[in-house]
């Protein structure tokens, strides 16, 4: 839930949360909204969201309105078999990274709490690496 005084402020807040360098153009293109009070809407599937809001008796909603993309093909919707396979591959990549790069091939601390602490530290390190890559400006 976003605490915002109006729909435009909610769109800006969601845009910045999803993409910290979001400007007005990016927000207009990628953040959908439905405001039942004013009858305005924009974004992918806004009619479906409006019906859902009416059913739940909600006044409005904002969402990331990005087109579906699968296997680097914009507009490509994955099948029900492709989704679990893709998600499993993401998990496998993360564990492979933990084992190879962060040297978590075996746990060195004793006991359940030691194993939990060691794994949490490795996961935190992995997330910090990803965050640093995400926050670093792209160089061309």
Describe the structure in your own words.
The model has no long low-confidence stretch (mean pLDDT 85). The protein folds into two domains: 7-66, no CATH class; 79-135, no CATH class. Helix 1 packs across helix 2 (24-30). The strands form two sheets. A three-stranded antiparallel sheet has the order 2-1-3, with helices on both faces. A two-stranded antiparallel sheet has the order 4-5. By secondary structure, it is of the alpha+beta class. It has five helices and five strands.
Major β-sheet annotation? 3 strands, antiparallel
Number of separate helices? 5
Q: Give the number of domains.
A: 2
- Return Rg in Å: 20 Å
Strand portion: 5-15%
Instruction: Give the tally of β-strands.
Output: 5
- The overall average pLDDT, rounded, is 85
Q: Fraction of residues in helices?
A: 40-55%
Oligomer: single chain
Distance between the termini: 37 Å
Weakly predicted, low-confidence segments? none
Q: Order of strands across the widest beta sheet?
A: 2-1-3
Class derived from helix and strand content: alpha+beta
Shape: elongated
In sequence order, what are the helices and strands, one letter per element?
HHEEHEEEHH
Tell me briefly what this model is.
By secondary structure, the chain is of the alpha+beta class. It is 53% helix and 12% strand. α1 crosses α2.
Furnish the topology, listing elements before pairings.
Layout: H1 7-18, H2 24-30, E1 31-35, E2 40-42, H3 46-56, E3 60-64, E4 69-70, E5 73-74, H4 82-100, H5 111-135
Antiparallel strand pairs: 1-2, 1-3, 4-5
Helix pairs in contact: 1-2
